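Thread: quick sanity check before group meeting

JM: Hey all, I'm pulling together slides for Thursday and realized we never actually wrote out the predicted structure for the chain we discussed last week. Dropping the sequence here so it's in one place. If anyone has concerns about the input, flag it before I start.
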Amino acid sequence: MLEVRDVHSFYGLAKALSGISLTLPEGSMSSLIGPNGAGKTTTIHSICGFHRISNGKVLLDSQEITGMSPESVRGLGIATAPEGRRLFSKMTVLENLLMGAYLVRDKKQINDLMTQVSSLFPTLKERKKQLAGSLSGGEQQMLTIGRALMSNPKIILADEISFGLAPLVIQEVYRALKIINQRGVSMLIVEQQATAAFRFTSYVYLMEQGRITLEGEPEELMKHDRIVSTYLGE
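JM (edit): ok, ran it. Output follows.
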């Protein structure tokens, strides 16, 4: 289980996170929604060690991981599918996937993970020799998720997973995420499109101005008029 307890952080003198707390139970699939600048990406970066936490704690299975390096956090089983994908655009699909497995030492396990990725995203198998930068936006997002899966993670933190994607591609991406989750990988998904979060995840956190202002199962949150009118467009 991943726990974020009363975490505060700054960018210079500007406060980015003001005491956020959230829990990601083992095997769960939760989402983090909110307006631009609310602190969603900073939350992901703070968990993963990319951004310094000034106060508060991050725990994985009751072990504190606050302040660990990104590589150490990844070694504990937390992988990211980052905002903007951040692929190695001049490397092939296969090379990008293998980069995701750089901490995996067992060759058989790497082959098994590659088989999983190919099963989830047959397009990537077909394009394994193609440069990542030449893929469509949807294919690049699939590759980003595949690269995260290649590290054999316990948890995937996915940032802006549906940004810029067509509705049918979003469905395909979430279909794959559901399968990964059903195999035991917990997920926290930062979603700009609240409708996708409410449709595909089982627990939703609303972040505004560096704080978690509401949380709950989608059915419960939809009872709040503000959620419906502001985030679901009704």
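AS: nice. The mean pLDDT is 93. The chain has ten helices and ten strands.
JM: adding both to the slides.
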